[in-house]
Design brief:
heterodimer, A: 123 residues, 72% helix, B: 193 residues, Rna Polymerase Sigma Factor, Chain: A, Arc Repressor Mutant, subunit A, 9 helices, 0% strand, globular
C-alpha cells in the first residue's frame, strides 16, 4: 500500500471516529461552544441575492469594529495635546513676565507707595 | 469582488468542522475539557476576527487559528512548568531530545495480546480499528500529527499545510512521510492489513 493510499485509509477511519466516537455530552458542549462563538460574531456579513449576486451588508462595517478603540486613541491624543499646550502657554507667560521684570523700570506707582519703601529698607 | 460569508454560512462551516476539529485538539492535548476549551477559543477567534472573510477562505483560516491555539496551549503549559522542569534539567545529564529527531518507533510499546482479526463481529473489528487509529494519532509527535491531519484528513495542499505549520514544503513532506511510516508500522504490528 502506498503512502497516499494509507493516508487516505487512515483519514476514512478518522472520519468514522469523528462521526461515531464522540460522546453525546461532548457533542452538546461543542454545540454550545459554536453557539457562543456565533453570538460573539458582530461583524459584517453579506446577504447574497442569488440572481444578481449583489451583496448587502447587514452588520456594522469593518471600521466600526474598531471605532471604540479609535475614539479612545483620539481622546488620549487630545488630552496629551492639551497638556502640552498648557505647559507651553505657562512657559510663554513666565518668559513674558521675566522679560518685563528684567527690562522694564519700576512703575512710578512703586516709588509713591510707602509700603514698598518699607519693604526695600527691611532687607 | 469576493463574496463575504453570511452568518448562516459561518454556522454551517462550524457545524461541518467542529467534530474533526475537536478530534484534532483531543489528539494533541489528550484531555477532553482542554480540547473543548481550545475549540471554543478557536471558534470565537474565527467569528470575531475573521467573519468578514470570504467563505472559501474559512477552512484555511480556521485550521491556522486552531493549530495556533493548540500551540499557545503548549506554550502556556511550558511556562507554567518552567520552574519545576528547570530544576530537573540541572540535575539530569540526559540530552534533551529534539522533536525532529524523535523516533516514536523506538519507544512504542505494542500490546502483543491484541485479539484483532479473531473477533467475528465486523462492527467490533471496526470499533477496535478506530480506537487503534485514535491511540496511534495520540502518540505521533506533534508536528507529524499536524502535517498528517492537514494533508490527508483536511485534504490541504502541501503549500497550504506549510503555510499553516509555518515551515517549508519539504518539511511538510518529511513530516507526512514519517507519520505514515509510523502509522503503517503500528497497524502492521496489530495485524491490520
Amino acid at each position: 500500500m502506498s503512502e497516499h493510499e494509507l493516508g487516505k485509509k487512515v483519514s476514512k477511519l478518522l472520519d468514522l471516529s469523528a462521526n461515531e466516537n464522540i460522546k453525546q455530552s461532548t457533542l452538546y458542549r461543542l454545540q454550545s461552544a459554536r453557539r457562543a462563538a456565533l453570538e460573539n460574531c458582530q461583524s459584517m456579513g453579506a446577504i447574497n441575492s442569488g440572481s444578481s449576486s449583489a451583496s448587502f451588508f447587514y452588520g456594522r462595517p469593518e471600521w466600526q469594529l474598531y471605532a471604540g478603540k479609535l475614539i479612545l486613541l483620539l481622546a488620549v491624543l487630545l488630552v496629551l495635546m492639551s497638556i502640552t499646550f498648557s505647559k507651553l502657554w505657562d512657559n510663554d507667560q513666565n518668559a513674558i513676565i521675566d522679560t518685563m521684570i528684567l527690562a522694564d523700570d519700576l512703575p512710578i506707582d512703586a516709588y509713591l507707595d510707602n509700603e514698598f519703601e518699607k519693604w526695600l529698607n527691611s532687607d | 469582488m469576493p463574496i463575504l460569508a453570511t452568518r448562516e454560512e459561518l454556522s454551517d462551516f462550524l457545524i461541518k468542522t467542529e467534530r474533526r476539529a475537536y478530534k484534532q485538539a483531543l489528539f494533541s492535548v489528550r484531555d477532553e475539557d482542554t480540547a473543548l476549551d481550545i475549540i471554543q477559543d478557536s471558534m470565537t477567534k474565527l467569528t470575531v476576527k475573521y467573519a468578514a472573510k470570504p467563505v472559501e477562505e474559512l477552512p484555511l483560516l480556521y485550521q491556522r487559528i486552531l493549530q495556533n491555539t493548540i500551540r499557545d496551549y503548549y506554550r502556556r503549559q511550558k511556562t507554567r512548568s518552567l520552574w519545576t522542569t528547570l530544576f530537573s534539567a540541572f540535575t539530569s545529564n540526559a540530552p534533551n531530545k529534539d522533536q525532529e529527531d524523535f523516533d516514536i518507533l523506538e519507544t512504542l510499546q505494542i500490546k502483543q495480546e491484541s485479539n484483532f482479526g479473531k473477533v467475528p463481529d465486523a462492527e467490533l473489528e471496526r470499533k477496535q480499528l478506530i480506537d487503534l487509529i485514535e491511540e496511534a494519532m495520540k502518540i505521533l509527535p506533534m508536528r507529524q500529527r499536524e502535517a498528517f491531519i492537514l494533508r490527508y484528513w483536511e485534504e490541504m495542499s502541501v503549500a497550504e499545510t506549510a503555510m499553516i505549520m509555518n515551515c517549508s514544503e519539504g518539511s511538510v513532506k518529511t513530516h507526512c512521510s514519517r507519520a505514515v511510516h509510523t502509522l503503517a508500522t503500528i497497524l502492521r504490528e496489530k495485524g491490520v492489513k
